[in-house]
Fold this sequence. Notes:
The protein has helices at residues 2-10, 194-200, 212-228, 269-281, 318-338, 353-365, 387-390, 408-419, 443-454, 505-526, 529-540, 560-589, 594-600; strands spanning 29-34, 56-63, 66-75, 79-88, 92-106, 116-123, 128-131, 136-144, 152-161, 166-179, 187-190, 232-236, 255-258, 264-267, 286-290, 298-303, 308-312, 344-349, 375-380, 393-399, 423-428, 459-462, 489-490, 502-504, 547-549, 555-557. It is an alpha/beta fold.
Amino acid sequence: MMKRLLKLFLCLFVICIQVLPVHAQGSAFDAWFSDPGVLSDSDVNAALYAYEGKQQVQVQAWQNETVCLKAAVSFQKNTEVTAEGDLYGAVHIPVTVSALHATEASLGFGTKSAPKEEVYDIISRENTIQGTGNDIGYYWISFTVPGNAPAGIYRGSVNITDGNETVRLKMTVNVLNLSLQWKDYPSLNLWQYPYSSYSYYDILKDEEPFSEKHLAVLKKEMQVYHDLGGRNITCTIVEEPWAHQTYFDTPSLITWNLAEDNSLWYDYSAFDAWVQLNMDLGIDERIDCFSILPFEDAITLHRADGTSARLALTLGSEEWTYYWQNFLQAFINHLVEKGWYEKTYLFIDERSVDSYQTALDLVHSVHDEQWHTMKLSSAVNTVPRDEKIFDDIESLSVSAACYDKDDTELQQFIAHRKEKGLQTTLYNCTGNYPNAFVVSDPAESVFFQMYGLSNGFDGYLRWAWNAWNAQPLVNTEYPSFEAGDPWLLYPDEANAQNPQPYLSVRLAMLERGRQDCAKYTQLQRLLEQEDASTLQDILYSLAPGESAYNAYGAVLAKDDEARKQTESETYRMETAIQEASGKADRRYRGNRYGRRLMLSQ
């Protein structure tokens, strides 16, 4: 019984059983709190922790924490419902209630023959759901506890009504005397595609890239990224650096031009506009440039007569050296002039270790009069072993596909990089489990953040933020990836006149996992040594369920037992953080200078 009550208190990965609550005769609908970790009633998102729906929950929260809940609405008759919510205590905490919209998701890896499911992944801006008899609709409920909200109990509700009947879902929130600190969040890098919106939206069809209208659209997308903690800017410096693996074109932000006298010059106007937009938003820590080692080792030269030629270059050849030396010299000068040199990195993505030395040798040979040379960052999908080479990579992301927590050699490699002050992050993309596909259990997004922390990684990288297909609000299928793999942010309707992006449930759960990591980091400073060690032991013991390819080429949980393990491990860690938070709260709340002491830790 206590275990069941604790699950309700945490609102963690529990969902109503399929036997719906008893309705009063004549009721048009009923509603109850649902599980944020389960998106729909389909087989792929079936509940592993079945629990009867409730119309009242208790939640524990830190100051500065964003809390997400989910509500289900069961329609007995044709009707339309609206919902709104609020929390009141020492201060008023606004509650956002948004209808969840479904999109179609393939269970395969770019396989049109794979079965598809309707998954409620899109967090809309609407608070209205239209339902017919035997339908179930969903609301996403979220609120952020202000940093100055006094500790204590806050009460409120989400009221759902069709104008005749109202169902009140009550919430009790225990705000602790603990405040999430930004410095404790793991780094977040989600690769962006600024040309996606340009190709997708109708209002930009007659515009030039990075026109005033285009920049206005991009600003809204990137404001969301900033608010989530993203501080890296993704820039292309050659055409199609990933060999056109995206649905829309991925042009270079820097145009390589060949003059009539065969001299080279570069147009930085798109690059400058994109970087400046992000800088103005506070996305200003790193400018990642793709790539001195593009997938096809090719560059595109634009001639004065308007034609262009794509040149396939042999790595290390005289021709390759000539073109890249020329570009790097000009690029360094431009970056120094703009004041962006210190923040800019050439990014090498998923290339063989053998090719690194050739690129490094060239990069180190090009400098200006002040001996400015380009810095490098990289992502690898094979386990790095050559420390000498990777000591030159200031930020390195290791794919989850090649990481094994029992690999002591890799653990030593991560520790070595920490000693040298180098960043090492864990990245996720197609072919990995746990993951953040549309058909992934949302608990996986939470687990993956904590799993990275448990293994010494400094943060999280993912492809991608917004590499959409033609109709992402309708179908998330992609030619060569699992559904939803290329984006976590949804666009507005293609014909929208004032486009506003939509968040996904996957993105909200990713942020929940990052908050868990920040809580853990702070608790290690706030707790007594014994309690801190106990919490650390739980984190270090986390283990996901086993993965496998399904019949349609997608990598998902091997079976229900594997899914249950990942979900239960997430629940185990969050339960431990919950209990440890209570201990830290009691320790500092009872001290006259508790909050001051807590913030100083």
